[in-house]
Amino acid sequence: MFRFAYPYALFSLLVLVPVIYLAFRKQRGRSVAYSSINLVSDAGLEAGLWKRYGKTALRVLVLALVIVAVARPQTGQSEYTTHTEGVDILLVLDTSGSMQAQDFKPKNRLHVAKEVVKEFVGKRKHDRIGLVVFAAQAVTQCPLTLDYPVLTRLIDEVDIGMLEDGTAIGVALATAVNRLKNSQAESRVVVLLTDGQNNTGMVDPTTAAKVAAAMGIKVHTIGVGTKGRAPMPVNDPIFGKRLISVEVDLDEDTLTKIAELTDGQYFRATDREELFEIYDRIDELEKTRIESETYVEYTDRFPWFLLPALGLLTLELALGQTILRELP
């Protein structure tokens, strides 16, 4: 970035260049009469065209460079200072046996949920994100981190059967809240996804939600599964692996209450597309606030012009006494 500290001085002073040039020409109009130039021809003082205008051109160039130097040319580099108020997000993912249901074709519920969660993580830039998985118990698969590649790899490792079967929603929420309780982030959020109802664990979901609300932690809840019945794979000892139709057992009332108590929102996804849309909406709801300040630090560059001007002035004085010497 280039600028002049005194641009008005530059334009006003440059007007002097043609004025001074004309003054030089007027001064050259004064002369001394000689009876014959043959008297000095041998001295090499003939007024050739390049000799007549060489000194004037050098003087005008020196003056122009000095004027540019006086205007203080500067170069600068932009610097950006960014202030972020990040969001700490705990993703809570149900891995109970019912997540094998294949109503989110062509894959089961858990497979699609993992795809959606990874896409959600990929859209965040400045937030710490962690992962809690649960069935009959809850474990922290990944603590809050900015290392999204590691988090993505750990999401890939989540699978049905890694925990004892069951649906401990209260325990899962309490685990996430415990992970966020010491967070200093401006906003703390839990996104809890399940396809069932709380049927095990020592912590009631409503109690866990009240604790979250007391700590200022917002909880968005997501219920997944088609309404009515869903195809579930089973291993039949006679017919082998096959699909049977089972009733979807989703406790929407509890999930809605959890969201309401914590100033969050409840969402229902009955297919793959809806689940992607829900996480997109949550992504919009929980944006990180970023403030940027820009400033430019300038450095004076007048020596770039002043030093050549001094050099040309020295050259003009030297040439004026040698090859550019003229008759008076």
Overview of the molecule:
The protein is of the alpha/beta class and 328 residues long. The chain has helices at residues 7-14, 16-28, 38-41, 49-70, 109-123, 148-156, 169-180, 205-214, 252-261, 272-285, 303-320, and strands at 2-4, 73-85, 87-94, 128-134, 138-145, 187-194, 218-224, 229-236, 240-247, 266-269, 289-300. The longest helix has 22 residues, at 49-70. Mean pLDDT is 83; it is low at 42-47.
Give a summary of the structure in a few sentences.
This protein is an alpha/beta fold.
List the helices and strands and how they pair.
Elements: E1 2-4, H1 7-14, H2 16-28, H3 38-41, H4 49-70, E2 73-85, E3 87-94, H5 109-123, E4 128-134, E5 138-145, H6 148-156, H7 169-180, E6 187-194, H8 205-214, E7 218-224, E8 229-236, E9 240-247, H9 252-261, E10 266-269, H10 272-285, E11 289-300, H11 303-320
Parallel strand pairs: 3-4, 3-6, 6-7, 7-10
Antiparallel strand pairs: 1-2, 2-11, 4-5, 8-9
Query: Which residues sit in consecutive blocks of at least 5 with pLDDT less than 50?
Result: 42-47
**Estimated radius of gyration:** 40 Å
**Number of distinct beta strands:** 11
Distance between the termini: 48 Å
Question: What are the salient characteristics of this protein?
Answer:
single chain; 328 residues; alpha/beta; Rossmann fold; six-stranded mixed β-sheet; 11 helices; rod-shaped
